[in-house]
TrEMBL record:
Domain Mannosylglycerate hydrolase MGH1-like glycoside hydrolase residue range list: 44-427
Domain of life: Bacteria
UniProt cross-references to Pfam families, sorted A to Z: MGH1-like_GH (PF22422)
GO molecular function annotation: hydrolase activity, acting on glycosyl bonds
Identification of the protein by name: Trehalase family glycosidase
Alphabetized InterPro entries for the sequence: 6-hairpin_glycosidase_sf, 6hp_glycosidase-like_sf, Glycoside_hydrolase_63, MGH1-like_GH
Keywords for the protein's UniProt record, in alphabetical order: Glycosidase, Hydrolase
Family note: Belongs to the glycosyl hydrolase 63 family.
Keyword Iron: no
Organism: Actinomadura miaoliensis
Length: 438
């Protein structure tokens, strides 16, 4: 693929910073419900777990107290086993506004709070620490960290015990949605053994708000429904469920490392022992390197716990560990990021899948498009490892893409065209964080 011939508009005048800040703030204010922020007012009318963590990182620059409230609302829906559910349903929104909705999941920590039964990547402790730093006095007055710490610690314990399905120190996901990168080609192999639920047995609501060409296929959705219903029918018991899908994902575990390091800082601030969290971060980092690093490809790969072995699909999840401090293979990851698979600096932001891969689709959900939250994580990784010029270029690319697309959910990495929902909350939050921190 010749990027110079294919990519359009990767370099142009920077957007108006003041106008972009006002527009991003408007998105978050519009999407605020009074206790949390919906990803979008159309396609995603509830609270999503890792969305709220990314949203809080941007919201803290507008209102640290509201950012605290964002995370507190999510933590308030925590289950007794420590899991943070990937959706907290808004009881004021019609039950059939989103599928799968509360009637499908039949789940929640206590009466009056309805949630899904699966989880999403653990960005929450990292978000909590940064939100605290935005206004320590207000956070201290409200007891924000004191109340958040035991819940965050329980969340991490859940991942380190019940979700260590491989028994070697990494948390496993049991549904593609738990990765946050729902429709990645990395899941195609493991999903192929899942018997799909026929489309006639469910009604997708996502296609009411987004083009079918941008969304997962009915076949994929049928498999998602099968996995979720099997987990539900086994009481969301990780040990008792005969998982047809169980994968160790490098992005999920890299974010666990970052959040354990942040939780060590939280522990220190509230008078708890930070050492166990630092130790856990070291252990997960070692397991990532031992189990998921693939030297020939210069990338971390996902590992299939059911079928066995590494999944040889090259997704952006394998670049996310770049944000881990002191990573010994950072130089290799940087070469991969700048190479033909991801084209860093020559495409719009960071594509979610190998540009040269057999399954690359530039506009379909997680099968190639560039996402703002993931590009921000790669940006943090570049800064962590001293790649200032590349980080600055990626930051500029994100700001341009957000301005041009109306804060789109994601963009085509080759053209910069926006897809999915506009007025997307974590896109706006990422912009505010970039403008505030550089």
């Amino acid at each position: 693929m010749s990027f110079s011939a294919t990519v359009r508009g990767t370099r142009s005048d920077a957007p108006d910073v003041a106008g972009l800040h006002r527009a991003a703030a408007r998105v978050l204010l519009t999407n605020w419900t009074g206790s949390s922020t919906v990803p979008s007012r159309t396609l995603y009318p509830h609270q999503w777990s890792w969305d709220s963590a990314f949203i809080a990182l941007g919201l803290r620059h507008l209102s640290p107290r509201r950012a605290q409230r964002e995370l507190e609302t999510l933590l308030g829906a925590q289950w007794d086993d420590g899991r943070l559910p990937h959706i907290v349903f808004d009881t004021a929104t019609p039950a059939d506004a989103y599928f799968p909705g509360p009637r499908f999941w039949r789940a929640g920590p206590y009466p009056g709070v309805r949630t899904s039964g699966i989880v999403q990547p653990p960005v929450h402790a990292l978000a909590a620490w940064e939100v605290f730093r935005a206004d320590p006095a207000e956070a201290g007055r409200r007891g924000f960290l004191t109340r958040a710490y035991p819940r965050l610690a329980a969340w991490h314990r859940y991942l380190g015990t019940r979700r260590d399905l491989g028994g070697r120190g990494l948390a496993a996901i049991v549904h593609p949605w738990e990765s946050g990168m729902d429709n990645s080609p990395c899941w195609d192999g493991p999903l192929a053994r899942v018997e799909p639920v026929p489309p006639s047995r469910f009604r997708r609501r996502d296609l009411d708000h987004a083009a079918s060409a941008d969304r997962p296929t009915d076949l994929d959705y049928g498999r998602y429904v099968r996995l979720a219903s099997d987990y539900r029918d086994h009481g969301y018991d990780d040990a008792a469920t005969p998982h047809a899908f169980a994968v160790e994902d490098p992005a999920f575990n890299a974010l666990l490392v970052l959040s354990e390091l942040a939780l060590a800082r939280v522990a220190d601030a509230v008078g708890a022992d930070p050492a166990p969290h630092r130790k856990r971060a070291e252990e997960v980092t070692a397991a990532l390197l031992d189990l998921l690093w693939d030297a020939p490809s210069g990338l971390f790969l996902c590992r299939d716990l059911v079928g066995g072995g590494l999944i040889r699909e090259y997704g952006v999840a394998g670049l996310v560990p770049l944000a881990v401090p002191g990573l010994p293979v950072a130089a290799d990851l940087l070469r991969t990021a700048a190479g033909e698979r991801f084209g860093l600096g020559r495409v719009h932001m960071v594509p979610s899948y190998d540009l040269t891969g057999h399954a690359f689709e530039p506009a379909r959900y997680w099968r190639g498009p560039s996402w703002f939250n993931i590009s921000r994580l790669v940006h943090l990784g570049l800064l962590e490892h001293g790649e200032t010029a590349r980080a600055d270029a990626l930051r500029a690319s994100m700001l341009r893409a957000a301005a041009r697309s109306g804060f789109a959910e994601y963009v085509d990495p080759l053209t910069g065209e926006g897809h999915g929902s506009t007025g997307f909350a974590w896109t706006a939050a990422t912009v505010l964080d970039l403008l505030a921190r550089g």
